[in-house]
Specification:
The protein is α+β, with helices and mostly antiparallel strands and 198 residues long. It has helices spanning 2-14, 127-131, 140-170, 184-196; strands at 18-19, 23-27, 32-38, 47-51, 59-63, 70-72, 76-81, 86-91, 100-106, 113-122.
Length: 198
Amino acid sequence: MWLPSALLLLSLLGCFSIQGPKVTRGLEGGSLTVECRYKPGWETNRKWWCRGADWYHCQTLIQTTSSQRTVQGPRLSISDNQRDHVISVTMRGLRRNDQDTYWCGIKRFGTDLGTRIQVIVVGPENWLSWTTTNSTGVSSGSRVRNYYLLLVFVKVPLLLAVVGAILWLKGPPRAPKEPWEQPVHINLAYDLAGDAAP
């Protein structure tokens, strides 16, 4: 009775062992690279990339082997950087029909570890709208608005505070009290004017 619960718990704990982006986009005809990070302890296990919305029936497209940490295919490559714990998958020559759900995973005894990634392929006709929206859905207009808010509420007051501090440290201008405290060129001009008078 406790065995299914224990297996479920182990599977849930394993889902935090590998993480990747939820959504990634690439331009039709171009390429994209997906990076999935995994926790230490899985360095020697095989890493794979599969396609399909259903975890149990997805089609493995490419995987590392025990002797090869980098495997190249015609349009796909997978690499396992065991030092940094990163799986990198590159898809080249993207086509519209490459848009789908993919899984980045680690082979292990029992249920494999994996994370779901939605790949979106954008056509050239949508290039402009794609470039003005980043992967989190924040438009460039929002970024410009955020920049101006930062400018008005942080940068300008900071600049005014610095200028005010400099003026305060410099102190108020002081008028000279005696003729000998005036600059030399003023004293010299006064003496010359005094000598010229009849």
